[in-house]
Structures are given as C-alpha cells and as structure tokens.
C-alpha cells in the first residue's frame, strides 16, 4: 500500500505484520496530505477526529497517554513519501514533552539526564521544523556549556546542564519565532503533522523531486510512532545499516551506529559513528538478532535493504527499512549475485539495474600511473574521480558551474540546503560524517564522486581555505578527489577510461540474450570505434565525416576547397583531401571488421570551416593601421572576408548544408564516396570483410536523394570496377526534417535504410534552434512544466516520435524490410530506447560510453 501509506509507513506496517520489533504507531495517508492542500492548507475536522481516534488506540496499546504528567507517551512524527527522499522532508522526535511531562519522564525512567536531553532535542527539532527557527541559533548554547564544563561530547552533560540549555532554548524560540514554545501536546502533534504536509513543498524537497523525476502530486504520508530511546545510556544506541555494501555490492552487513544517541546523530555527522562490525563485540546478542532480521528483510523484499534501528536498554527496535540506494557498481554486483544465489531470475535482476545509473561506472577514474600528490585521505563515500576548483559555498559553486567551471564542493558536512551546490559540483569533499552521512548518500544518488569524514582536512569557512598536511588550499585552487579510494590530491590528475568488471560483462551478456533491438555506436575515429566495440557495439550507426575535416592539417585544404574560384581549383583541393579521407575510412573499417559502418557524407554549412568575420575584421584593421603592413596579405584577408561574408547565412541550421551541399557541389560528395569505396576495396582485397553504408543527410525531397544516390552508385561502380572487386553496400538517408518523414514512402524508394537524426528532427519539428533553446527558454519550459522534459534529452514521443512511427510505417509499406535506426543523442537514453523498440526500429546508435547503457535499456524494453 505504498502509494497510500508512503514507503516508510507501508514498510513499518509490513514489518509489524511479520512480527518484527517495531514501535507501535499509525499512519496518516498521502490522501490526507492531498486533502490538506485541496482544503486550502487546513487540518480538516475529519482529519482531527481520525487522528484523535488513532491516537487513542495507540495510547491503549502502549499504556501511556500523550500529555500524561506521570507516564507520558512520546511520539515521533515522520514524513514518508511514496518514493524515498532521504533527509528531504522533516521529522520531529520526542513530541509530547513539555515542562511538566519532562519531569514525569525523568522520574518514571529514573534518568533525568536522558529526560532533559530528550526535551532539548525536541525543542530544537520542533522549533526548527514547525516554527522555522534555524538550527544554528541553538548550536552556540550547547557549545558554550560544553566549554564551561570542559567536555567535548554532548553525552557528558548532566541533567542540570540540559535544564539550563532548555531555559536558554525557550528564550531563543520566543525571540526568533515571536511566540512561546507550545506546551499543549495535542497542539504540538497537530502542528507537527501540518509541518510534515508542508515540508512536501519545501525548496529542497522540490529540487530533489525534480532531480529524481518524482511527480509533485503524490503527497507525503505522516507516521506517528511511539518513541523508543537510544539516548538513555550506554546500553542504548542508534544506527543505520545496509544489508550489503551500497558502494561495492559486497554481501556483508555495512553500516554505522552510535552508543547513547538518538535519531539523526548518526547521519548528522556531529559525532563520528562506529562501523557496525564493532557492535558484534559491544553487544553480541543484539548484533546477532540484527543480522537475523537483516537476512529476513532481505529475503522478504528480495532486495538490498537500508535499515534504521535503535537499541533501548538492551532491546533492539527496527524503525525503518527500504530498498537501499546504491552505486551503479553495487547495483550490478547485487543483481548479479542475486541471480547466482538463485533469488532472482535474469530478467528480474536486469530490471533492478537502472540503465541511466550506469553512466557512473562508465565514468573515468584516476590513471593509476599518474603522479598523485595525496594531501589527505577520507572515507571513499561515492566512487569516481574528479578535478576542479575547491569551493566552500554551495551558492558560489553553482554560480561558477553555470559559468562552465569545474568545482569541487568542500564543506565540513552537507545539509539538504546544499543540494544545488552538490548538483553543480564535479565532486564533494566533507571533513565530517560517515558513509551514511547526507553528503555520502546524496552523492551516491547523483553518481558523483565524494569523500566524506576526511578529518585531516581542516576547513575554515571564514577565510575560505582548508589546510591538510601543513598545506593551505585556498578557494579556487585546483584539487582532485578519488571517491573510490578516499584520496584528496593536490592539482589536476590524469583520468582514464573505465573498464567493465566481469560481473558487469556477464550481466550485459544476459541483456544481449534478451534484447531484440540492435545497438550501434556513433564513432568518427578508429579509437572510438575500438572502444565501442569493446563495449559491445554491433556496428557504427553514424560516422560524421566533418570531424575528419576539422583536423589541424586538413583545415587549410578544406578552406582551399571552399574558397576555390573555379571548378578545377575545387577539384585540386578535393584531390588532396581524398587520400586522407580514404585513410580515415580504412581505419574505421578495419576496427569494425565484419560489422556495418554507416558513413554520413558532409553535413554542416561550409562557413563552419572558415575563420569568423570578427577575427578577420580585427586582422584587417590592424593591417590597415600599420604603415609597414604587407599589402599582399591585406588584400588576401580582404578577399577572404568577402568570401566568408558571401557564405554567411541568417539561419545556418536551415541553410546550405547536408545534401544541399552535395547537390550544388557534387564533387564534394563524389570525393567522399570515392574515398569510402577505395578504402573498402583495399581492405576487401586484404581479406577483411567490410560492410559500407553510405548515408545522405538532411534529405527533405525524394529528388535530392535520387540525385545523390545516383552519384554514389556511379562512383562506387567506377571505383570497384577499377579495383576489380565486388563489395555489397547500401545507400540510405537520414530522416531529420518533417517533410522527409511525411513523404517517407516516396523517399523509401531511393533508400535502403532510414536513420532518424532525432537531434535535428527535434529542432525542425519544434522549430527550436537547439543552441538558443537550451540556453534561453527550455529550462523555463521544463521548470514550469510547459514541456514535460527537455526534448533534446528525452525523445518527444507525441510529436517527434509520431513522425518517427509514421516514417517507419510509410517507409516499410513502400519497401518491406527497410532497415531503420536512430542516431540522435536519444539513442543512449532509456525512455527513448524503449520508444524506438516499440516503434519497431532495428537499432539504436549512441556514443561509445553509452553502448552498455543501450544494451541494458534494450533488454528492459523487451522485458
Ligand atoms: P528520514 O526519512 O529523514 O530518515 P525518519 O522519519 O526515518 O527520517 O527519522 C529519522 C530518525 O529518527 C530515524 O532514523 C530514527 O533514528 C529516529 N526516529 C524516528 N522515529 C523514531 C521513534 N519512534 N523512536 C526512536 N527514534 C525514532
Ligand atoms: Mg529514515
Ligand atoms: Mg542532422
């Protein structure tokens, strides 16, 4: 009943049902949360009645009453949405305490220190969550009294100390909130419930939902649960554990706990917690019981669990369980192990791995041979490596990142208010907190490298610097972090490509067994082709030949070709380019032996290869002002400027590019076709199997394709006849303007294959210029839900997708068996891959590093 009770509530109920030690309580549903919002943010009469009734039942079952001066019931008020949003919403503990009940609690438990510690915690949390009083207002009070008493740990303060603290806290609350701390327990409860409802729409929860694509309308449930206490003394404690290692996937209990502590102490990073393994020595019976419960929960949910527990006077309570968040690395390992352990089928296991999360393991890491100036070591909280400027403030980090700079966010610890800074940073470094601290959990979720609890690093937020091993690192200095080892490194270090673990390779083989849609790669160089092939690409779906024109030694020849005054001059320049292109293609064909290689003929507007007008104007002006200037050079530059101006376009994206170049300057495409077939012939003669597929870009009318097809066929014929060899090849087109999709039946008559260039097709269908849209208004559109997604990242199924479906259908009607694929960036995105599969495409093509993602997403689509 997750959608009604929220994840936390549903699991608490389920654990209670199977007889686990869960403190009793009740859950206010997500429906109530939505009613609250629909009723104009009011706690309705019927909600109040139902809450009172449930409370009464709870009071009866535990034999205590809310507000009873002798034996008070204390409860926690906990948020819990359908999808877990750790730390994003607010929780209040120890509710029900006031100036009177605290005395009763002290007497009843014979533990005044504990009672007053709980009361001050309650005041702190409640006034933070419900009354909006910031945490830091209270901190100095505790620091001051600890200093006065000469102690460093909160746990060493006495009941009297806490009483003093409480008096000061109450004064702070009245001052900051403008009203006194409420003493009436049911009023406390009602307001806390409302605060949880409201927290659904606090800034950090909204941002979290946006990042994780959680719908806003779900609402949160509220769990009211009787308290158990980890802060009553040394046979008490609280902790968090994962049933398997969330970083590596290793099948070993993994977690942390603190003795004599409550609630958030473990994750807040106030005291550094102990690793769970040590609990085995400290409380052997509890450890064993906990291990058993972990095993039960794991086999019940058939997934790795993230479990919160508290020990009260030697008795263990379970306060929460949920499917644990994990790194991609761990996700793969756990899915693999579950199949080997016979717990899940291959299909089930594959579905446990989120293709988009795989990006993480396909990220780069530090070259083991690189020189590393290690200045500190912390906990390896989230794997991956990154370099960037050390920045101590989330707002600054966000600003610099928006300016295109790489930053590492360095904080003593992070809180949910740092989300935007973490999002903007390449990686996160904290000096406090453990493997389950906020920074660690959030970084793992975001797939960013993080090092936590790096106590060697002494951060001074005032001066914006940190010291480590006597070195001072100032704001803006470059540091590198390796979240896999916990090393903090001075300066930038060399990163290398990832390798796939054996488990990962095996999992991908399972995916291939199930997957029906093909996976190719977009690659322009033999190195990329090789990488992609290692990652499992089944061919090249798009080779962009213009990238070969951009090389430094070629640009002058390309410019010669473009600026040629006569046909002959142009042909001379092309003849110089030809052998170079041929070499490129030989390299690609060789790496892709036996697999299809789709080569797209020249696509961008020609002026992209020429110097820009502003630069030329500056040069010319300088030459004119200089009396000794070389007059010949000046005239050359002026003539170049005229040429460049002549080629300039108002809308280059819709200008003279793609097949329109081939139609007007057939010699360009002819040279490219010649290079392709000479390369193919050379390799075929050497016994290497080549499968060339020539692709004509930006076709809108069948006549364009017919002309270009004839050109390629004639060229191929000449080359192959001369070489005395036969090679099978195909000629196809990109579908990237709406007219091509609409007239796909006509176009199919001249095409052996269609490849949907969904980047351009999205631009031309929406009429958006991508470069302008993403910078100017698309963010606004997505943030304000004008569009559900950025259509350049996730294929717009209803519009662009409709054109794709239509083109496939029309094309196949005219030419049964017409091969179809997609080569836009969408080819590596899981939702788009699912769509491509549904639309009946034969393959997707994506960048080499996304090939494993596409293999898995392709299997998901079939399952
Ligand atoms: P979050 O969703 O942010 O994890 P929780 O509602 O789980 O918030 O509460 C945070 C912590 O508060 C828990 O991990 C637990 O330690 C403590 N807590 C919550 N309810 C209780 C309770 N009934 N008794 C004791 N501790 C509790
Ligand atoms: Mg929790
Ligand atoms: Mg295009």
From TrEMBL:
Belongs to the PEP-utilizing enzyme family. Residues 501-860 form the PEP-utilising enzyme C-terminal domain. Gene3D superfamilies: 1.20.80.30, ATP-grasp fold, A domain, ATP-grasp fold, B domain, Phosphoenolpyruvate-binding domains, Phosphohistidine domain, Pyruvate Phosphate Dikinase, domain 2. This is Pyruvate, phosphate dikinase. One of its GO terms (molecular function) is metal ion binding. Its cofactor is Mg(2+). Its EC number is 2.7.9.1. It comes from Desulfuribacillus alkaliarsenatis. It is an enzyme of class 2 (transferase). Mg(2+) binds at residues 736, 760. Pfam families: PEP-utilizers (PF00391), PEP-utilizers_C (PF02896), PPDK_N (PF01326).
